[in-house]
Amino acid sequence: MEACQVMTSPTITISPGASVRQAITTMLDHRVSGLPVVDETGRLAGIVSEGDLLRRAEIGTEKHRPKWLEFLLGPGRSATDYVHSHSRRVADVMTNNPVFVDERASLAAIVALMEKHRVKRVPVLRDSVVVGIVTRADLLRAFVNATEAMSAGPHSDADLKEAILIAINAETWAPQGSIHVAVRDGHVTLAGTILDDRERDAIRVCAENMPGVRAVTDELVWVDPASGNFLSPTV
């Protein structure tokens, strides 16, 4: 899936010249935790989020550093902090140079950016103009929609068995040729040997995720390749 398929659009934005109070009331009224900041042409100028508004003089949460640390950091750092905690303009408190994506960006690329930059939302641009935003909630909705759209799965036990084996063998971590699958009325029994006990849960999940599976029984046996000792799931 791409950004344009899951993004919230049109998205709620705010201008750099707006007041901090206006930004906060907008977020509260619309129950969002961040707003893209756009200029008069709709181009992205920054983003303002709850995190940008935690250190505020009005509520007594501005930073107070020890004198020795202020000396080491220099007056410039303290001056910047003062602006951030006292200014009433969005332009002074917003995050500059925010992470953004093109509307054709894949969801995998978006998640990678969120993890790398530790952000909860990513503005979506088309020709440098903000056309939407992808948040963590949008990704969760995409998951729900994707699972709802899944087919009922193979109709026969034989087809279901084949589909499970194909899915397991397609994974690089899966032991090739040592897993046996039996299916009866949608109930799956997994048997065979594994060389790493962590593979057990992965194989089970792979089977459970196949549409049409009603239950999974684990009868896999773990064999330690170093010692030859084995462990069944009932031990």
Structural class: alpha/beta
Alpha-carbon distance between the two ends:
43 Å
Overall 3D shape:
elongated
Q: Give the CATH H-level superfamily of the largest domain.
A: CBS-domain
Largest sheet: 4 strands, mixed
**Low-confidence region ranges:** none
Q: What CATH first level of the largest domain would be assigned?
A: Alpha Beta
CATH architectural type of the largest domain:
Roll
Write down the Rg: 26 Å
Classify the beta-strand content into a percent band: 15-25%
Q: Helix-strand pattern, N to C?
A: HHEEHHHEHEEHHEEHEE
* Count of helix runs: 9
Determine the fraction of residues in helical runs and give it as a percent range. 25-40%
Mean pLDDT: 91
The number of strands is 9
Strand order of the largest sheet: 6-7-8-9
| Count of structural domains | 2
Query: What is the CATH topology descriptor of the largest domain?
Result: CBS-domain
Describe this structure in words.
There is one protein chain. With 235 residues, the chain is α/β, with parallel strands linked by helices. The chain has two domains: 3-146, CBS-domain; 157-231, Histidine-containing Protein, Chain: A, CATH 3.30.1340.30. The protein has nine helices and nine strands. Strands 6-7-8-9 form a four-stranded mixed sheet. A three-stranded mixed sheet has the order 3-4-5. The mean pLDDT is 91.
SSE topology:
Blueprint: H1 3-6, H2 20-30, E1 34-38, E2 44-49, H3 67-73, H4 75-86, H5 90-93, E3 101-102, H6 107-117, E4 121-126, E5 129-135, H7 136-148, H8 157-169, E6 179-184, E7 187-194, H9 198-208, E8 215-223, E9 230-231
Parallel strand pairs: 3-4, 7-8
Antiparallel strand pairs: 1-2, 4-5, 6-7, 8-9
